[in-house]
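Final paragraph of the annual report: two paired records, presented back to back.
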Amino acid sequence: MTKDLRPNIIRAHEKEKGVREIARFLDISPATVSRAIKRFEETGSNKDRERKDIDDFPKRLAACIAANGGCFE
């Protein structure tokens, strides 16, 4: 889903539009609409979630190297 769709989904949801109606109008799946609404209700934001596994990869890689590669087994 593009970042541009999220605000449109939330605006439609706030106007009391149903998940299926929003999905049909934006030509996306109802599951995508539901996830966007759920994320907004949980976080209050349309922004992407932090990708912790990728963001701290250099730190984890350094720990694996220090452990002589033991974490890759």
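The closing record of the year follows.
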Amino acid sequence: MFCRGLITVSTKIHDLKTHWLRAVIHLNLG
């Protein structure tokens, strides 16, 4: 249960990092 929650949190953080990096790159290129 705890491990599953940890994986979910890690996945969400990874998605946020990816989205943030994509936004930064888009702003830099634009």
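The helical segments are 2-29. This concludes the annual technical report; the extension proposal builds directly on these records.
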